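Researcher: Next entry in the queue.
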Amino acid sequence: MAAVAWESGTVTTSTTATAPAIELRRLVKTFPPQRGSHDTEVRAVDAIDLRIEPGEVVAFLGPNGAGKTTTLDMVLGLTEPTSGTVEVFGRGPREAVVSGAVSAVLQTGGLLRDLTVRETVRMIASTYAVHSPVDEVIDRAGLATLADRRVSKCSGGEQQRLRFALALLPDPRLLVLDEPTAGMDVTARRDFWDTMHADASAGRTVVFATHYLEEADAFADRIVLVAGGRIVADGTTAEIRSRASGRTVSATLPEQSRSRAVAVLRGTDGVRGIEERGPRVLVSATDSDAVARLLLGELGGTDLEIVTAGLEQAFMALTGDGRDRTTDGEGAGDSGHAARLDARLDARLDARLDARLDARHDHHEEELVR
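Model: Structure for this entry, 370 residues:
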């Protein structure tokens, strides 16, 4: 998809200045089954309620087909909800988009390969009545040393940073990012999020969809965990982790008594799961202290470790087994839906560029006639 940004020019009222950045109320989106299919209606988003305040950095996290992309499409006004309401800074999504309050960085497309990075940013900037300085957005996107490089010579991560620069041009109040660091190396990813947090500190709201658990853990102030079209958890990383109750206790067991020790552990109250890894046994339990005493005492364990549940464990516990959901939710039709959005966004960008270039051509011909 292309990087999408829209012209500013609407004066912010006191109502929009104090309204939440995003507010979703009982939001539902359904898709009809494909023609000729015996499938039933697909409920991609199922009665979501969500409020995001200005200045928050929020991660939308969930397995494929969870409803993340469809929800963000409705926030951007790219698709209409079946029922429920969406407000962005107290207005409808389309009104917020037209006002320049919103920009989006999507994953693919929308870049002209024969232009340089600076030429690309300058050309898109020319389509705005008001925009941030070209060199400023290039620098903020970490592209200053690549400004004269052709887009075709840029790596996938560098092209993604270029899309980010384009999204910064109208100086939006809300940035919506879909897998924003795809293709970036570790250093570029960290620099990108440093920029995002600096923007958030200045009042810009950042909402991003990601599959990177560690990225959500490291950079989001808040995580919204989505599964089956519903929000199953919403809070800080620590709060999400706490939803996966219990701790994991691990120890090395004597080889000659390991089988008996595992059998004893399986019969112990509060033990929810056991995994054997060579000489070590990992025990997930609600009462880690009791399991630790049992391992060190009666069962003769050594090298004991106790760890709290990580974000990955919480993710698995709250979303089921975390496998691809390609037969329900947005996964049933998401690839086709995304392809349609790609085409619409690229067509919108191409139309704007064509109109601008035609206008310049007409002006040039008039000058020659004179």
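Model: The chain is about 40% helix and 25% strand.
Researcher: Noted, moving on.
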